[in-house]
Structure formats: C-alpha cells, structure tokens
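Structure ticket #2291
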Amino acid sequence: MKVSLKTASVVLGYIGSVSAVVLLWRESFILTLTLFVISALMLAVLRSKKITAVYVFVALWGPLTEAIAIGKGVWHYESPDFFGLPLWLPFLWGAASIVITYSYEHLSRFKDKK
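Resolution: structure written out below.
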C-alpha cells in the first residue's frame, strides 16, 4: 500500500502533536512553538485553502468555547497562560482540525467510488 506525502504528513502531524502535548505540557512556550511548526508543516504539504480556513476558524473558536466553559468552572488547565488557557491550545485545536478535515475528505472519496 502506497501512502501519499499528504497522508503521511497528517498522520505524523497527529502523532507529533499528541506526543508534544504529553511530553511538553509544562513548557508552554516550547510546546506552542512545536505545535506551530507541526501545523505549519502540515498546512504547507497539504496546500489547501479549505483546510487552512478551517484551521484558522477552529484555532480561534475552539479555545474561545473552552474559555467560556473554564470561566463557568467546568474544568481547568494545570498550567494556564491567559484566561485560564494554555498558550498552545489554539495550535492544538488547529492541528486537530487538519486531521479531522483531511480524514473526512479522504474517506469521502471511498464513498463516492460506489
């Protein structure tokens, strides 16, 4: 089975993002930079205006929604940087949006082949 560069970048970006959060969550600036680089690399490989637009939308609205819940005491982060949120959170939301959007687009091709 041949894996495309785009698919490989999404899979590796997902693994890298999750690993970075698990290993670096106490080092907010380094984790933020790491997630930014991972996201930028995935977006550069994919070269999709749609995925980039979804990334920006989710990177803004995901943390905003969390900030509301955090403000109401639903949960909290151990190392928040501003408004109860870690600095790296928008980049993690954005990276997740890349994985979800690309996966949806990729899997939709199988349905269309019926």
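Closing remark: Residues 5-112 form one domain.
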